[in-house]
Amino acid sequence: MLDNSQLKQPTSYTSNHVFNSLQQTSYIFNIASSTGAIAHCIFIFLFFYLEQTTLAWINTLSVSAWLLTFWFNRIRRHDISIFIMSVEVFGHALFSTSILGADAGFQYYLWPMALLIMAIPSLNIAWSSILAFAHLTTFTLLSLFCRTHVDISESSYSTLFLLNLAGASIPFLITAAFSRSIYSRQYFLMAKLAEKDELTQLFNRRFGLEALNYYVNQKGKNGAPFCISLVDVDFFKRVNDQLGHNKGDEALIKISNYLSQSMRETDISIRWGGEEFLFIFPNVELNQIQQRIEKICHDMPNHVVLENWDNSISCSFGLVQVKNNESSEAALQRVDTALYQAKKNGRYQVVSDH
């Protein structure tokens, strides 16, 4: 659904602003790696305090494993990173729960790890499913059958349980929140990309048709006038043939910048295709906009200059006011006819149906 806020001339937007998805995944994994390494450092001291030296030394290996995942995050081998994480969590939960019992709560790390494995597509679906199923099965078995207690106080068990419950849930919630934020930004940027031309950053033809249909419908409802202009770059093929396509792209960018920046804030600038542009002028009569378009046409060679190109760069303009009860297709046909007449008359001019 098109809304009015979309139809204002946008600020500069380029595809360079799109976040690299692998880098974003690295951010998510770095959060997991950081929390995993910090948590296991704390457990080293805690286990020594509880005189569980075996578990303390096992945790030194765990810290090393979590630190190793930073390296794989850095080189973007997220498949290896999450595999190391899952193996470490699985082994740590198995050893700790077997020794201390389920009341200590170490099995609770298996749940968020299973969810992380499935939520982030670093491994293929088969491996993700196998690992997640193994974690959840182990969680169930440990919770049901590991009821042994070692010789530590009940208060220590309560402290361990609360620490593990917080340690298993809070980092996962932070990671989930961060993932959601990234997803939201990606969705917004993908929506923008769907309506923008990659080269010129003007609206693309698809969005242009939506906008034109919107104003045609609005005119049918409230009679608000609007005009459209179809613009073609004069002798653009010569630029491509003599200077190459890179220079041709540079010319299109400069032309689109000049044209769009010369329009009103509410006008809609569209790259229609190739070297053609479409402009929609809402809430204006033809006689109100024609003089402005003629000035833009006349001044263009003074504002658009291409290195190593001595000829003037200009455009031909077709300009029409959309009639009552006229379809989008009919209006486009009329403005295309006006543009054709401008080119036939010698180019570098505005032809309207005024």
TrEMBL record:
Residues annotated as domain GGDEF: 224-354
Transmembrane regions listed in the UniProt entry: 27-49, 55-73, 80-100, 162-183
Keyword Membrane: yes
UniProt-listed InterPro entries: Diguanylate_Cyclase, GGDEF_dom, Nucleotide_cyclase, Rev_trsase/Diguanyl_cyclase
Top-rank taxon, per record: Bacteria
Reactions catalysed according to its record: 2 GTP = 3',3'-c-di-GMP + 2 diphosphate
UniProt EC number: 2.7.7.65
GO molecular-function terms, A-Z: diguanylate cyclase activity
Cofactor: Mg(2+)
CDD domains associated with the record: GGDEF (cd01949)
PROSITE patterns: GGDEF
NCBIfam families (UniProt xref): GGDEF (TIGR00254)
Protein known as: diguanylate cyclase
